[in-house]
Amino acid sequence: MMRLLPYCAAALLALLGAMLAGIAIGETPVAPSVVLRVLANNLWDAGYPVDPIDAGIIWNYRLTRTLVAAACGAGLATCGVILQALLRNPLAEPYLLGLSAGASTGAVAVALLGLGGAALSMSGGAFIGALAAFGLVLLLSRASGAGGGNAQVILAGIAGSQLFSALTAFLITKSATAEQARGILFWLLGNLSGVRWPSVWLAVPVALLGLAVCLWHRRTLDAFTFGADSAASLGIPVRRSQLLLISCAALVTAVMVSIVGAIGFVGLVIPHALRLLLGTGHSRLLPASALGGALFLISADILSRTLIPGQVIPVGVVTALIGAPLFALILVSRRGRA
Amino acid sequence: MTNLNTVNLAPLSCRGLGLRLGGNDLLEAVELEVIAGETLGVVGPNGSGKSTLLKLLAGLLKPSSGEVQLLGQPLARMPRRQIAQVLALVEQQADTSDAISVYDAVALGRTPWLSALAPYSPEDRRIVEQALTDLDALHLRQRLWHSLSGGERQRVHIARALAQRPSVLLLDEPTNHLDIQHQLSLLQQVQALPVTTLVALHDLNQALTCDRLAVLDQGRLVALGKPHEVLTPERLLCTFGVHAHYLTDPYDGARILRFRAP
């Protein structure tokens, strides 16, 4: 246990450093000392004199945004690790199971058709849509193969994604005004600007809980190294573990998508990159991926706010712009090794 | 290691075992009792159900009829973890694209004995190193999976199975894709292992070195017994479709089979 201490300390420091940067950097830069004072004031009534506008921006906008970015990054990267480990497919990622497409359909149905009335926000619609799509994909993969093999799950995911993407496109063309369509597109590409404290209280515990569940099952994930049959020979109840862990990934992803939209590439690239660096053991890979995902998304969020002055780029665009070349690089280097 | 001396029941047995998939009987009414400590070879032409039998015996497939018993208990009612503490299966083609080291790949064999809270102990480390030593693979432990040759991979798979500390070991054509030297040394290593072993084999001359043989033909167990009593010229013609007769090797007096196309 003592060996882990320096790593944990370094990880915590990196995370805190990134968050500090995420809070300080923005359209109106704030000095890190001011950030620390505001945090101290709010956390333990330190009573430093600060500009109330700065204090409001830092505590209610930038901090919440950074916390949610960290939680989403960590959650999505964890889900990526799970799905890649269980499905034994390098292209597996959190949205593979139709979750992002389902979320978009749900959100669009609420925004355009007023489904659910006032009781249902766009986020609520997205969450329900994501779970509905996941349920459909699960049923389809079960129905299509005796064991619900990996290929079946992936194919069912693709079918589900296509179906819900088509539904979304259909709804938008049928009933959206240009203004609405633009807003929806922005949301679909990932958007951290709307998050406040309630989102933090949802995203952070969910990310931590997801990580905890996966760490508890780290040996199960390791046992899938040589495939499902091999895992079964090693004493893993394959079907039950797959269902539990994939459902866990789906829930975490659905929560994240409903809060910030479909931010791509985090769940695909981060696990691959860290697997390359750290090897395959999930006791290291899981926390490292969570940390990597958090750092990646905090950085992407900073870039999304600063690349074009006075304008926010959807964070999903930034993650894709960084993530796609990174992924290509990983693929090339994998080929070199194999 | 589970002590079987006190028990006189078969470590692994099956009654009326059958598997029907898509209207075809892949396996039908197989009755088999593996004797503690023996090496039982399973032979049969392609598609005769060797792999299917092994998967059913390991509990990876659910039988459509009959049942498998492990140490006298119905396999179907045992939790996977408990099965894996008694029985290990080495499949024909288990591969990975992960950059896993040989040591870590063998250490996976400890999975059924570890839990989320039980850490990997010095005792586990000792067992893994012993398994690597048994398979003459200790020097490979730092190597990455994709850098291994076919023979080395097979040895790592078997070492992983041994790290489970099973009392029954199932091997599905372990000598496939190996050159002749590795085939012979691997079979020797397998037969020297202190566990009850059931091994599917392709090469009938290699099968002759087993303690007993089971012959499968189109999903049915058609013969079971001492190798020379089972692999008769009539049986070989009827099941494998080849003419065969025994030659005696003047070098050591061993009897070997020679085949001719019919």
In short:
The complex is a heterodimer of chains A (338) and B (262). By secondary structure, chain A is mainly alpha-helical. Chain A is built from 14 helices and no strands.
Percentage of helical residues of chain B?
25-40%
The largest pleated sheet of chain A is described as:
none
Number of helices of chain B: 9
Report how far the terminal alpha carbons of chain B are from each other.
Answer: 48 Å
Q: What's the name of the CATH homologous superfamily of chain A?
A: ABC transporter involved in vitamin B12 uptake, BtuC
Do you know the CATH architecture of the largest domain in chain B?
3-Layer(aba) Sandwich
Q: Mind telling me which CATH architecture of chain A this is?
A: Orthogonal Bundle
Low-confidence stretches of chain A: none
How big a fraction of the residues of chain B is strand?
Answer: 25-35%
Which two protein chains have the largest interface (Cβ within 8 Å of the partner's Cβ), and how many residues from each?
A-B, 28 and 35 residues
Instruction: Compute the number of strand runs of chain A.
Output: 0
C-alpha geometry of chain A: globular
Question: How is the topology of this model organized?
Answer:
The complex is a heterodimer of chains A (338) and B (262).
Chain A: H1 4-24, H2 32-44, H3 52-87, H4 99-113, H5 122-144, H6 150-175, H7 178-188, H8 197-216, H9 218-223, H10 228-233, H11 238-260, H12 266-278, H13 282-306, H14 315-337
Chain B: E1 12-21, E2 24-34, E3 39-43, H1 50-58, E4 65-70, E5 73-74, H2 80-86, E6 87-90, H3 102-107, H4 122-134, H5 150-163, E7 168-172, H6 180-192, E8 196-200, H7 204-207, E9 212-217, E10 220-225, H8 227-230, H9 233-240, E11 243-248, E12 255-260
Parallel strand pairs in B: 3-8, 3-9, 6-7, 7-8
Antiparallel strand pairs in B: 1-2, 1-4, 4-5, 9-10, 11-12
Main location (chain A): membrane
Protein name (chain A): Iron ABC transporter permease
Subcellular location (chain A): Cell membrane
